[in-house]
Amino acid sequence: RCLLCVAEPAIDLSRFSPDQKVQSIRSELGLPEDSFVVGMVTRIRASRRLDVVIKAVAELAGEFPQLRLMVVGRGSGTAELDVVKEPARQAGIADRVVLAGYCSDERLVAAYRAMSILAYPMPGTDKSCRTVREAMAMGLPVVASRVGFLRELVSDGVTGRLVDLSSRDMALAIREIVMDPGSCSKFSAEALASARRRFDSSLQAGRTIALYNEMLKV
């Protein structure tokens, strides 16, 4: 007899919550309150494909003056210059890109709060994509590529959008959300509901206990 338990990695839903009271950091980062912020939380390195999102924002910049890109994270050596600043300058959107640096504890929650959506082109070393789960728990729509576990986390057209790994497809998905505040609100509500339904630590514990109880019966 084979016993199988599926328990998705848990998130601290009391910490990552839209109800969490944290001070806004938009003004500190130079983000206008009416701006639409495409957020990324990532290690800054070429393999994380930040170029896809930078090019997507550049493609939309002329149409949406309120659009901004905020990158949360750090890189080694000259990574910030090589992977973010210089590509943004070449794309003509250096004034639209904000580097928020490495954020932890309450500041990470505040960083998510400053975002309108999360863009996630490529998983890093954590293939469970914790960043996406945290963003969903904050009620953020997610625009992600159809890569690995992202296809399981993000429900296309429900909690966000799944796209091919290209700046064109990323731009189309972001444009769709910017153009339709109603869909953005719907994605936000569904992302939050999905996170609370799937990533609660008590659910993970309950399923684990249930599995052991079944094993004891064998």
How would you sum up this structure, described in words?
The protein has 218 residues and is α/β, with parallel strands linked by helices. It has helices at residues 50-61, 79-90, 105-114, 130-137, 150-153, 167-179, 181-198, 201-217, and strands spanning 36-41, 67-72, 97-101, 117-120, 142-145, 160-163. Helix 1 links the parallel strand 1 (36-41) and strand 2. It starts with 35 loop residues before the first strand and ends with a helix.
Could you give a quick summary of the protein structure above?
By secondary structure, this protein is an alpha/beta fold. Helix content is 43%, strand content 13%. α2 links the parallel β2 (67-72) and β3 (97-101).
β-strand amount = 5-15%
> What's the count of strands?
6
Secondary structure: helix percent: 40-55%
Globular, elongated, flat, extended or rod-shaped: what is the shape? elongated
Strand order of the largest sheet: 3-2-1-4-5-6
Overall pLDDT: 91
Structural class: alpha/beta
SSE string, helix = H, strand = E? EHEHEHEHEHEHHH
State the low-pLDDT regions, or none: none
Sheet with the most strands, sense and barrel status? 6 strands, parallel
Head-to-tail CA distance between termini? 8 Å
What is the number of helices?
8
Radius of gyration: 18 Å
Defining key terms:
elongated, 13% strand, alpha/beta, 218 residues
